[in-house]
Amino acid sequence: MQLTGLTNQNGNIMPQGEGTYGNQVGRPPKGHKGAKMKIVKVKGVDTTGLTNRQVSTLKKHAEHHTKKHIRAMVNAMLKGSTFSQSHKKAQKSVGT
Hints:
The protein is α+β, with helices and mostly antiparallel strands. It has a domain at 41-93. The chain contains 3 helices and 4 strands. It has helices at residues 52-61, 67-78, 83-93, and strands at 5-7, 13-15, 41-42, 45-46. A hairpin with a 2-residue loop joins β3 and β4. α2 crosses α3 (83-93). The protein is rod-shaped and about 70 Å long.
């Protein structure tokens, strides 16, 4: 069996046809490169790096607490604390 097609830089034959890397036909569509995530802020504090669940819980939690408290919580969660642990740390360090 003899393959036909283009040769690459190493002299190897690259197959041509549907679904091969030698042809655009049959390839999946390219995704959007550079698509940015929406930056969500809670009381003016950037929550990039937190999970969606942490952000949604933090939004509800923010109604009862200051921006300083929320900032302390976000920093603690980014370092690996859970929501409850970060709340306790924030209460000790900055209060409500």
